[in-house]
């Protein structure tokens, strides 16, 4: 009995009538068709080049690109020690270039891409081309901006306050950021060291011997009482706890005020009678001593 096999011509007819299968037949042959190749050209190159396969193929695969940003701007903001102590709000007026939409279109987001063209069975040609998107036209316009900066209590030198999107613009992306960098100005009375405040007080020789009372005007105007009824030596110090700067992280914690005393000796010379009178009054024997005063430092 003769058996006619209609499967071969039927398969060929089916392939020739199916555009996609005909391309597969031209590329891989009959064996490739039987094995069910459905890979695209991009898949072919992915198998050879791995992660670089996105560069090839007639159909470009979308890739995630970082959004371009304008430059960041850092501006020094000078603040007084009074503002560090009490806090403050400062208004800063700035002329900022802003990107505005203009009539017309422009090319944007341009990049190099590889395109693959099939020349025949198993033959491909790769070409590099510049691909750009079409975006609305942009122009830069200067605008006056008023920014309010909060000077927090206890703020430290070189700390920065960021303002998102207030930096330089980018016509194809997002503007950069603006950061105000704190610069604490020198003070004529107080010196800052961490949360502590240091100051010097000069007293007379009489005050150093018999005692004194005085008031120091603090950064916010309140008075700090200072008094001694004992002898005060040059370089002696008094600590006033809680009279320093507020801590930046916890304003309920405050440093100390450290007062160092200097003694102002009389400028005029004493005569012999005055010298004898002082010796009689103090009744202090000579106590000259030579030693290493810097030991331990």
From TrEMBL:
Molecular function (GO) terms for this protein are: misfolded protein binding; unfolded protein binding
Gene3D superfamilies listed in its UniProt record: DnaJ domain, Urease metallochaperone UreE, N-terminal domain
Membrane-crossing segments per the record: none
This chain belongs to the protein called DnaJ homolog subfamily B member 11-like
The segment(s) forming the Chaperone DnaJ C-terminal domain are: 74-266
The biological process GO terms on file are: protein folding
Species of provenance: Cyprinus carpio
What the entry lists under InterPro entries is as follows: DnaJ-B11-like, DnaJ_C, HSP40/DnaJ_pept-bd, J_dom_sf
Query: Cellular component per GO?
Result: endoplasmic reticulum
């Amino acid at each position: 009995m003769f058996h006619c096999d209609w499967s071969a011509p039927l398969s060929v007819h089916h392939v020739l009538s199916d555009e996609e299968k005909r391309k597969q037949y031209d590329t891989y042959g009959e064996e490739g068709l039987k094995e069910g190749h459905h890979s695209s050209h991009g898949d072919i190159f992915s198998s050879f080049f791995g992660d670089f396969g996105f560069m090839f193929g007639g159909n470009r695969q979308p890739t995630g690109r970082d959004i371009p940003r304008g430059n960041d701007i850092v501006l020094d903001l000078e603040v007084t020690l009074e503002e560090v102590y009490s806090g403050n709000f400062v208004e800063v007026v700035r002329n900022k270039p802003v990107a505005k939409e203009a009539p017309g279109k422009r090319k944007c987001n341009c990049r190099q891409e590889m395109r693959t063209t099939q020349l025949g069975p198993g033959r491909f040609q790769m070409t590099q081309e510049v691909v750009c998107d079409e975006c609305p036209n942009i122009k830069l316009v200067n605008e006056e901006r008023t920014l309010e900066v909060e000077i927090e209590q206890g703020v430290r030198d070189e700390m920065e306050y960021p303002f998102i999107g207030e930096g330089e613009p980018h016509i194809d992306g997002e503007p950069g950021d603006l950061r105000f960098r704190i610069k604490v100005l020198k003070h004529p009375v107080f010196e800052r060291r961490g949360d502590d405040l240091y100051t010097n007080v000069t007293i007379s020789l009489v005050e150093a011997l018999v005692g004194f009372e005085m008031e120091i005007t603090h950064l916010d105007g309140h008075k700090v009482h200072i008094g001694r009824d004992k002898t005060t030596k040059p370089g002696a110090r008094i600590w006033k706890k809680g009279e320093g700067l507020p801590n930046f992280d916890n304003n309920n914690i405050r440093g100390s005020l450290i007062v160092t005393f200097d003694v102002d000796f009389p400028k005029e010379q004493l005569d012999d009678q005055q010298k004898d009178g002082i010796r009689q009054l103090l009744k202090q024997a000579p106590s000259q001593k030579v030693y290493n005063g810097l030991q331990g430092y």
